[in-house]
Amino acid sequence: MPSQTNPGQDAAKDRLIRRRVAIGTASNVAGQVVVFVVSFLLTPFMLHQLGPTLYGLWILVGSMMAYGAILHFGIWGTIVKYVAQYHAQGDHAHARRLLRTIRAFYLIICVVLVAGGFALAPFFADLFNLPADEHSLARALVILMSLATGLALPGMLPLAVLRGLQRYDLVNVIDITASLATAAITVIALLLGAGVIGVAGANISGIFILFVLGRMAMRRIAPELDLGLRTAEDDMNPLRDRQILHVAFGHSWPLFVQDVANRLQTRTDEIIIGFFLPISQVGSYNIARRLSETTQTLTRQFMKTLLPLASQLHAEQDAGRLRGRLGRLGHPSPL
After folding, report:
1. pLDDT for 118-173, tens place per residue?
2. How far apart, in whole angstroms, are the C-alpha atoms of residue 99 and residue 161?
3. Burial of residue 149 (number of CB atoms within 10 Å: 0-12, 13-18, 19+)
4. Which residues, including other chains, have CB under 8 Å from residue 286's CB and lie 6 or more apart?
5. Which is nearest to 225 in space by CA: 331, 87, 126?
6. What are the sequence ranges of the domains in the chain?
7. Could you tell me the pTM of the whole model?
């Protein structure tokens, strides 16, 4: 049924919505600022420790692996949308079915990505302007980064759930903690002489930190969504749940197309530079590109809060707020 027209309840709900959007946006911006500052301070240190060639190799492999990351097929948005919707409806069984199916799918993609990394590694150095003495290092880095890319898919599932629950405050606390920990491990690894392989290891450590902290927060905030709890539904093969597969991929394909376009826009230049110029030029271009994207990144933080909120209002059949008041959040009245 549509929401009741009790003025007191309406005013309270409007205040709650504005509070959630304000807190979510502020925490998103704070998280991005911290990540930017950490990256800003860490980049010259890495460049000094690795040198232009190895730093360029690190960026180049990361850009290649970013294309592998599109194999999440836009399903992160599906998780956010439907966790918010099912949570608003109190339908925890469907939420667990969705999460269990996506987890199984991503574990398969993880194996595919790692296998792809092993297949690409022997040929990677021949595709780019790498010095001959760096070929074996490049092969090892490709394998490690394919492992990191693969693990990130199921590993970040708890954070997507927290976004669906509109707990962006917790998401950004976890992101900040993991970023600081990854930066610290990176510095230690470089000081110990581990080089670019140590940097890759630090990134894998960061993924595990994100997963552990996200899982802890998820179990505390929404224990009913914990996939560690066995239910009768666990006897079903999650990849044969056609209803949930239709839900997952039916919403995700536009996000997948958008993600591919974003990768083409932001990750292709470094690869092209690596094809035609010395690999040492890749790093300098990447630094300039990241600085130029900072303002655009910060302006997106408000929009991130709207998807789970819109899904919640849709589940509550609150069409008035979904069409009107929610839209005016971005354009407050001057009165």
Report:
1. 998 888 888 887 778 888 899 999 999 999 988 988 888 899 899 888 888 898 89
2. 9
3. buried
4. 59, 63, 270
5. 87
6. 20-309
7. 0.79
